[in-house]
Amino acid sequence: MTEAKERAELLRRVNGDSSHVLRIFDEEAQAMQSVRSSAHELENANAIGEAILSTIHGQRERLKSAHRKALDVLNTVGISNSVLRLIERRNRVDQWIKYAGMLLTVIFVFAFVLWRS
């Protein structure tokens, strides 16, 4: 009778421990899969960001060229210097607005990341 009890006790321990070990391996596998998918998503986000930056750079160059051409045309037409200064001042104000928007966007994204953490 004692031998049967000990045997049953041993079998319960073996079955219990193996299911616990399998559960641990399952959790580790899920964690590794999550890490892999997160890394993949980060790589995708980085690639999209690089594509956007290259597109914006190309647009910037085209706008610079158009700006130069417009100034040349305006000078050729004979627009006064005061109007040209007004246009340049407006361009500087637009630049400040652009940089302020960039800064606010970065602050917002940083705050959002901190809030989600």
Automatic annotation (TrEMBL):
<dbReference type="GO" id="GO:0006906">
    <property type="term" value="P:vesicle fusion"/>
</dbReference>
<dbReference type="GO" id="GO:0000149">
    <property type="term" value="F:SNARE binding"/>
</dbReference>
<dbReference type="Pfam" id="PF12352">
    <property type="entry name" value="V-SNARE_C"/>
</dbReference>
<dbReference type="GO" id="GO:0031201">
    <property type="term" value="C:SNARE complex"/>
</dbReference>
<dbReference type="GO" id="GO:0012507">
    <property type="term" value="C:ER to Golgi transport vesicle membrane"/>
</dbReference>
<protein>
    <recommendedName>
        <fullName>Membrin</fullName>
    </recommendedName>
</protein>
<keyword id="KW-0813">Transport</keyword>
<dbReference type="GO" id="GO:0005794">
    <property type="term" value="C:Golgi apparatus"/>
</dbReference>
<keyword id="KW-0812">Transmembrane</keyword>
<feature type="transmembrane region" description="Helical">
    <location>
        <begin position="96"/>
        <end position="115"/>
    </location>
</feature>
<keyword id="KW-0653">Protein transport</keyword>
<keyword id="KW-1133">Transmembrane helix</keyword>
<dbReference type="GO" id="GO:0005789">
    <property type="term" value="C:endoplasmic reticulum membrane"/>
</dbReference>
<dbReference type="GO" id="GO:0031902">
    <property type="term" value="C:late endosome membrane"/>
</dbReference>
<dbReference type="GO" id="GO:0015031">
    <property type="term" value="P:protein transport"/>
</dbReference>
<dbReference type="GO" id="GO:0005484">
    <property type="term" value="F:SNAP receptor activity"/>
</dbReference>
<keyword id="KW-0472">Membrane</keyword>
